[in-house]
Amino acid sequence: MIEITLPDGKVLEYASGITPYEVARDISEGLARNVISASFNGNTVETVTPLKEDGALVLYTWNDEAGKKAFWHSSSHVLAQALEELYPGVKLTIGPAIENGFYYDVDFGEHTVSEKDFDAIEKKALEIARGKHDFKMREVSKADALAHYKEEGNDFKVELIENLQDGDITFCDHSTFTDLCRGGHIPNTGIIKAFKVLNVAGAYWRGDENRPQLTRVYGISFPKQKDLKEYLELLEEAKKRDHRKLGKELELFTFSQRVGQGLPLWLPKGAALRERLENFLKQAQKKAGYEMVVSPHIGQKELYVTSGHYAKYGEDSFQPIHTPKEDEEFLLKPMNCPHHCEIYRARPFSYRELPKRYAEFGTVYRYEQSGELHGLTRVRGFTQDDAHIFCTNDQLDAEFKNVIDLSLYVLGSLGFENFRAQVSVRDPENPEKYIGSSDNWDKAEQAIINAATEKGLDFVIEPGEAAFYGPKLDFMVRDALGRQWQLGTIQVDYNLPERFDLTYKGSDNELHRPVMIHRAPFGSMERFVALLLEHTGGNLPLWLVPEQAILLPVSEKHEKYAEKVLNSLENREIRALVDARSETVGKKIREAELAKYPFMIIVGDQEAEEGKISVRRHGGGDLGSLTVEAFADLIQKEINSTLKTFESKLN
RNA sequence: GCCGACGUAGCUCAGGGGUAGAGCGUUUCCUUGGUAAGGAAGAGGUCACGGGUUCAAUUCCCGUCGUUGGCUCCA
């Protein structure tokens, strides 16, 4: 007999060889019907795996993440079989489940697969699914496994198997299909009722751009047709929140082929929005003891050789600008920090004067690979809300925590609650990617982890994600389509102070090396605005939105009164405009709703007589008639409820 | 940079070997309106660009540029 412990702590006794499915059936018929995967003592097992020792069993249904994973992993087998049947001779490589669905990387040889083929693939996959084939795992010796794939001429699988231990190799069979597989399947293919191929993309074998490029076929599947329909509708909704679409509709920014790819042009409304964001941060920064500085857009190549950026990114930068007569070399600045280091060097500092906090909305230029450019989130010219803090070692901890406070204030004020905090540290396997002493790295990494822990941040540690000069704490936010982007960043740097020979005079009358913190709570204005748009669906917070209200005169007769109201709104710092076109009120309202103005103010005879305004809330309908004062209060109240003032922890 | 897709009016898009269409917007006129589209007429396009095939290319083929989904990269 063996003892099976369930998640609720209940212990059941069974004869050795009982399967998770049988345990589920023992608990309830309903669970037995729905169980699609299980884990035993922390390892994923099949629902038909015989359990032969005491242990903890967790049963999963479609509603569990692990259940979905098994479902999608199994679906990738079905996809693979469909591809093999439709395109004989394809070489399969790997096909994991991902966050939303699954993919399979396939070498199609000469054949190319495109959207036109999706229908056929889906049809074939569903046909296979309907066959209700059981997934069956079997152990294979390394020699047999290698022989199997060598015969097929599949070098990819051979390479995978060569890296596995003999005795640790399993194949999974279903229908006529066999794949090298570690396990974790649903009972049979029949559970897959809906199947969709989403897109195809190139992907390098093992993520290495020097190795062959495969075709990655992305798909998603569901146990119910309705789930697929809902998922596709969700994707459609997400597209409506795409910042590229909203930016165009709201007239915030544009791109011009003539100016160049990845170089955003900010339209008047976008520029005004940006300015408000900048002022918002400037105000908080002032309280937090920052001083604004300004530096030029180019710098001598030597500056970046000194900083180490040239050695690391010289080839991947816009190439040097040459002066016509002296042939001096300048670089478009890719970073503000070297400039700020030179600002620090402008005069000697005593420890009594530190920390120095230099802030600048600095525009930088980076040569990003053309395939990487994406709307405002990945561009070649962008403005960082940058600052560099020069402090003593003793001050580092407190300064870092102050910056965390400021970053959280910024994210909180703009409604970003679902960010992910990520501590990026060195890749232990590639130490040569980083500059600076291992000692300093240890200190810096520890300082960040301590500060994040003390601030109660829920963070994950990502090895290999550090900048080449130091570790960092990043705030990651997802876009409409679920892709993660880095917004705010805080980085500890022992390196640049050394390279620029920065010093301060200590209490011991000796020169000491300051520590530097790089930080940008927004990250870049471009990316921040992009994510803010996606996050809000274009319904920006009232304090930020370009126009808070649009005045809609009922007819041309009322234009004059509208102008008068506009004037008194402007006197109360409310941003508004008049729609004086000769259109019906209905049409003006419809268009104002679509243009996402937070408030619509209808003025006609009634209002003019009473000296009031009729207010309509975007998406919320008629609020009735108000005095201008009452409306101004309403706006102020809403702004105050979302926009808190920054409380600095400075003494 | 790599693989795939896409590029038609200001915007959203249809079409297709015989040099172009819709809706919205814009312009003019009529209408002076009360909480999500009042009516009419007009203007607007080297069908991204450059080659090739063809009697004929916006349409088919190749290349370039741009956009896009991924991959790699991201100071």
Descriptive notes:
The protein has 651 residues and is α+β, with helices and mostly antiparallel strands. The protein has four domains: 2-61, Beta-grasp domain (Ubiquitin-like (UB roll), Roll); 66-239, Threonyl-trna Synthetase, Chain A, domain 2 (Threonyl-tRNA Synthetase, Chain A, domain 2); 253-536, BirA Bifunctional Protein, domain 2 (2-Layer Sandwich), CATH 3.30.930.10; 549-642, 3-Layer(aba) Sandwich (Rossmann fold). The chain has 20 helices and 33 strands. An eight-stranded mixed β-sheet has the order 16-20-21-28-25-24-22-23, with helices on both faces. The chain has a five-stranded mixed β-sheet with strand order 2-1-5-3-4, with helices on both faces. Strands 6, 7, 8, 12 and 13 form a five-stranded antiparallel β-sheet that branches. A hairpin with a 2-residue loop joins β10 and β11 (177-180). α5 (142-152) runs antiparallel to α6 (155-162) and α13 packs across α14 (438-454). The longest helix is centred in the N-terminal third of the chain and has 22 residues, at 65-86. The model has no long low-confidence stretch (mean pLDDT 95). The protein binds one RNA strand of 75 nucleotides through β12, β13, α8, α11 and α18.
Structure summarized in a few sentences:
With 651 residues, this protein is an alpha+beta fold. It folds into four domains: 2-61, Ubiquitin-like (UB roll); 66-239, 2-Layer Sandwich (Threonyl-tRNA Synthetase, Chain A, domain 2); 253-536, 2-Layer Sandwich (BirA Bifunctional Protein, domain 2); 549-642, Anticodon-binding domain (Rossmann fold, 3-Layer(aba) Sandwich). The protein is 35% helix and 25% strand.
